[in-house]
Amino acid sequence: TQLLEQSPQFLSIQEGENLTVYCNSSSVFSSLQWYRQEPGEGPVLLVTVVTGGEVKKLKRLTFQFGDARKDSSLHITAAQPGDTGLYLCAGAQTTIIQGAQKLVFGQGTRLTINP
Amino acid sequence: GAGVSQSPSNKVTEKGKDVELRCDPISGHTALYWYRQSLGQGLEFLIYFQGNSAPDKSGLPSDRFSAERTGGSVSTLTIQRTQQEDSAVYLCADSDRRGPYNGYTFGSGTRLTVV
Known about the structure:
- The structure holds 2 protein chains of 2 kinds.
- Helices cover about 0% and strands about 55% of the residues of chain A.
- Chain A is mostly beta strands.
- The radius of gyration of chain A is 14 Å and the shape is globular.
- By secondary structure, chain B is mainly beta.
- In chain B, about 0% of the residues lie in helices and about 45% in strands.
- Chain B contains no helices and 10 strands.
- In chain B, the strands form 2 sheets. In chain B, strands 2, 4, 5, 8, 9 and 10 form a 6-stranded mixed beta sheet that branches.
- The termini of chain B are far apart.
- The chains are: A mainly beta, B mainly beta.
- At the A-B interface, strand 5, strand 9 and strand 10 of A face strand 4 and strand 5 of B.
């Protein structure tokens, strides 16, 4: 059972189009992060959202954390071929280590932007 | 070093053999994590080391998997009697606090192929 469900799992669109990727859970997270991963590399942090309803913008990327802190979305405006990659959402979860948290990841959305 | 370093980058091994994967985290970062990523999928948590605390081993899939972290720095993930289903990319990450607050820094991973 996946704690974080991402949709769609695959998305292929033309350059210039807009798109939204969703990350949903039945669990509440204290914070949620989005990462982008390119082939042969580890994921790289894009953003952290902490407050319910929070919206953060990173150039053409807009990230939103749901009011109940159970879901998040990533919206890309005017997508470009350089946006191609695997996008991963991750929620912070408590661990058996006192005062510490770890990330649990969704299965990812593989995005392809065609020129 | 400036980033998280993993070695080897690729490992091909025969079924039944043991393998060791190494992770060199960023100096001074007290938190170290191992994840597994099957072909193009999301990340599966394996183990979390935090300073001198007992590690969170809740993600290790079987007793064939073990990990240690010596001197609070270098970590080794060992897989005994490898099976074909162990084939995946093994990613190491660290963070500068007791959790993902400032994000994880990932290595480039070790691609393990069991033949």
